[in-house]
């Protein structure tokens, strides 16, 4: 591990995804998860969870309200290649709305790569939402081929949605019990490896719950400036239009201060086209 951390290697997206897959398979055998549920039977543990985020070199996770402008071909290839590895992909409802998510893995080549790894052709798409204000015409929800799991404490159901939708409703009063919900993802849907793609508020909640195992952070060779948006109440307290203001960029984690802060161990550093790809394991 130390030798890896000491060198920066160039990579292709497919190579890096393959490397992650084989390393994570090995981890799973020994089940290195150290967070909540570590002592439980494997079938009752939360999935091993990765967070994939991109930030500008000056620490912004959004530019004009979106993550897209921070990326380029190399980063987009990696974003899609990483989806060939997990059993499920999780996003916050606001990211679903803003980024207008589509099917998670639709391309035949990527589906074949997953099948070659012994995985379902497409990861389960998981969305966390408290409001359930999700437009059924969002591409992911409008696609009859998509299978979406909604994690919520809300008892309502979505109407007009053409995707196959299941609900995970493990709540602690009005709030989602995140640890319980993650355990249910494993028990009901066989999710052993989960990839969270943000956004920043959802990401922080996973860290606070002790559910995040690794951070996959891409540093974009770009300076964007502007103020970091402040949102102590979580994104539910941030009006939608705030994220669209150029001066209100989000950092990769947003919400309450982490107390105590969480330490990271560097696992690997890769580089391509001036992008840095950093893989960290969270210290517990
Ligand atoms: N740089 C990157 O890598 C990256 C990655 C992803 C997204 N982004 C950007 O980040 C922005 C969106 O991120 P965001 O942080 O504002 O929002 P977000 O994390 O995508 O979504 C937040 C929403 O998720 C739901 N949620 C989160 N935690 C919950 C919990 N514990 N219980 C119940 N519901 C929960 C709530 O949904 P409801 O509103 O339905 O109640 C909440 O408003 C967009 O601008 C997007 O482009 C950047």
Question: Into which percentage range does the β-strand content fall?
Answer: 15-25%
Share of residues in helices:
25-40%
What is the 3D shape? globular
Poorly predicted parts: 1-5, 232-237
Mean pLDDT: 88
Strand arrangement, major sheet:
1-13-14-10-2-9-3-4-5-6
What's the CATH topology name?
A: Dihydrofolate Reductase, subunit A
Q: Largest sheet, if any? A: 10 strands, mixed
Question: Number of DSSP helices?
Answer: 8
Structural class by secondary-structure content: alpha/beta
Oligomer: single chain
How large is the radius of gyration? 18 Å
CATH class: Alpha Beta
Ligands in the model, by name, code or SMILES, are: NADP nicotinamide-adenine-dinucleotide phosphate
What this model shows, in words?
The strands form 3 sheets. This protein has a 10-stranded mixed β-sheet, sandwiched between helices. A two-stranded antiparallel sheet has the order 7-8. The protein has a two-stranded parallel sheet with strand order 11-12. The chain is 26% helix and 24% strand. The N terminus is likely disordered. It has 8 helices and 14 strands. The longest helix is centred in the first third of the chain and has 18 residues.
List keywords for this structure.
Dihydrofolate Reductase, subunit A; disordered N terminus; 284 residues; 14 strands; binds NADP nicotinamide-adenine-dinucleotide phosphate; alpha/beta; 8 helices; two-stranded antiparallel ribbon; single chain; ten-stranded mixed beta sheet
Q: What is the element layout, followed by pairings?
A:
Blueprint lengths: L1 H4 L2 E3 L2 H18 L17 E9 L16 H10 L5 E5 H7 L8 H9 L7 E5 L10 H4 L4 E5 L12 E5 L2 E2 L2 E2 L1 H12 L3 E4 L3 H9 L5 E7 L6 E2 L19 E2 L14 E9 L2 E8 L2
Parallel strand pairs: 1-13, 2-9, 2-10, 3-4, 3-9, 4-5, 5-6, 11-12
Antiparallel strand pairs: 7-8, 10-14, 13-14
């Amino acid at each position: 591990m130390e030798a890896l951390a000491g060198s920066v290697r160039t990579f292709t997206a497919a190579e890096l995804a393959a490397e992650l897959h084989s390393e994570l398979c090995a981890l799973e055998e020994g089940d290195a998860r150290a967070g909540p549920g570590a002592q439980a039977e494997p079938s009752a543990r939360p999935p091993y969870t990765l967070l994939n985020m991109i930030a500008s070199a000056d620490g912004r996770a959004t530019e004009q309200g979106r993550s897209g402008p921070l990326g380029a071909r190399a980063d987009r290839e990696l974003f899609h290649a990483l989806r060939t590895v997990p059993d499920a992909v999780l996003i916050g409802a606001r990211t679903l709305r803003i980024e207008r998510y589509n099917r998670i893995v639709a391309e035949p080549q990527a589906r074949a790569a997953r099948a070659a790894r012994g995985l379902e052709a497409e990861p389960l798409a998981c969305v966390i939402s408290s409001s359930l204000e999700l437009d059924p015409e969002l591409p992911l929800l409008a696609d009859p081929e998509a299978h979406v799991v909604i994690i919520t404490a809300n008892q309502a159901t979505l109407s007009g949605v053409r995707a196959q939708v299941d609900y995970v409703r493990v709540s602690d009063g009005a709030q989602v019990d995140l640890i319980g919900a993650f355990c249910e993802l494993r028990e009901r849907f066989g999710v052993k490896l989960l990839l969270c793609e943000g956004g920043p508020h959802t990401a922080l909640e996973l860290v606070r719950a002790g559910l995040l195992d690794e951070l996959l952070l891409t540093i974009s060779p770009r300076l964007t400036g502007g103020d970091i948006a402040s949102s102590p109440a979580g994104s539910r307290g941030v009006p939608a239009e705030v994220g669209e203001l150029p001066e209100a960029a989000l950092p990769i984690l947003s919400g309450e201060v982490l107390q105590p802060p969480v330490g990271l161990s560097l696992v690997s550093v890769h580089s391509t086209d001036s992008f840095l790809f950093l893989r960290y394991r969270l210290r517990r």
